[in-house]
Amino acid sequence: MELKYHIVTYGCQMNVHESEKMAGILRKLGYVETSTLNDADLILFNTCCIRENAENHAFGNIGALKKLKKEKPELIIAVGGCMTQEKGKTEILKQKFPFIDIMFGTLNLEELERLILLKKQGKKRVVEIREKEGEIIEFDGAYRTSYPNAWVNIMYGCNNFCSYCIVPYVRGRERSRKPENIVAEVEKLVKEGYREITLLGQNVNSYGNDGNTNSVDFAKLLDMVASIQGDFRVRFMTSHPKDFNEEVVKVMAKHRKICRLVHLPVQSGSNAVLKEMNRRYTREKYLEEVKMLRSYFPDAELTTDIIVGFPGETEEDYLQTEELVKEVGFASAFTFIYSPRTGTKAATMPNQISEDIQKNRIMRLVKLVNSLTRQKSEKYLNKTIEILCEDYDEKKGLYLGRDEYGRMGYFKFEKDVIGKFVTLKITKANGISLYGEAENVR
Ligand code: SAH
Ligand code: SF4
Ligand code: F3S
């Protein structure tokens, strides 16, 4: 009988792609995927620790497996990702969930095969967390699940130490992949039929700063990737406002393949808060970058991340965030309540904000962001957009895909067009979603 795996992924695109790498390793060992926990022979949690609720989700779902493991002792339960890489967390996990069989970190995920084999040879529990980042190991066995998009790491780790953020502690220092390896990977993906390439890094604009790339910086890399022959589009994330620059925008202008959307997390609209966050840019610099981007492309869109209730954030600071959101007119924004993370600087700052105030601010901000998104939707009415069809919605009986700005469009079609670029005439705008009629398929 075939062995089956089930992976539960939390967190960002980085983790989504790493789950694809883990799936590749499991398939090599002969496992096939199952969509249910109950018939899995191996369940793997790829965890996130960016905020407390991300951790709580993982804790809850791992805990819920106690019964299944009792009924099925041969079931292998593995836990990897950012949480296991957090200082002291594996001890807590071991105590709370003695039934976990394997634990590994973000810095040694490519060792998963060996760890599973150790477990199968009879070792009771295999816990190996690498403390320090090593050389990049090139890995081309990912089992991709996001067609027609393909995630491509350009770098790992983060050096920025924003005062609230745990990522630098659980992902190590910045390491850039060699440009020739990235280009070769994208060429291969395009040949295989992928039609959207998303370049991933915690701060893509500092690509190459570690001296690993033979002086190729992010603008140059983006140029190299977008110069690859083929009908596909290119996205990148995340850009850090302290390093985002005109060179990158010039490359965007050179290649129509590059989506004219920049994910530029602002975090706060207040200079006092930005300083305490150690973001190393001001509100003014941020707004200038937005202006510069729009001087090249008046229709460029921006998306962002915002944290409310950071220690010391006053009502006045918060209102400056609202002002900035209105001024930029983000296409969408991910909004978060500040969550203290042990070991980060902000966790010990005085003036932590009460939960009541945090909740009040996030409610107001979400309302504002949603109203902006809705207004933008209405502007799409009767316009024609091009989406990349990525899925079929069974319930709605409609295909769906995103335009270059990340806007979701739904449409009816008589045959499968997943992976095709489709021109849609928008006939209805409903909140954040658009509905249209297909005019052209490519
Ligand atoms: N490298 C990216 C983002 C990584 S984490 C960048 O620098 O923008 C994704 C988002 O989670 C962050 O942009 C931030 O808005 C949010 N985040 C990070 N740490 C957080 C914390 N402790 N509490 C609340 N939100 C947090
Ligand atoms: Fe975290 Fe800042 Fe690094 Fe982003 S740039 S991952 S927010 S430390
Ligand atoms: Fe991503 Fe969460 Fe780790 S946001 S980098 S999976 S802590």
Summarize the structure in short:
The protein is of the alpha/beta class. It contains 13 helices and 19 strands. The radius of gyration is 22 Å and the shape is globular.
General form: globular
Largest sheet: 6 strands, parallel
Structural class: alpha/beta
Instruction: Count the DSSP helices.
Output: 13
Could you give the count of β-strands? 19
C-alpha end-to-end distance: 42 Å
Quote the average pLDDT.
Answer: 97
The strand line-up of the biggest sheet is 2-1-3-4-5-6
Q: Cα-atom Rg, whole angstroms?
A: 22 Å
Helix content: 25-40%
Spans of 5+ residues with little confidence (pLDDT < 50)? Answer: none
Strand residue content: 15-25%
Ions, cofactors and other bound molecules: S-adenosyl-L-homocysteine, iron/sulfur cluster, FE3-S4 cluster
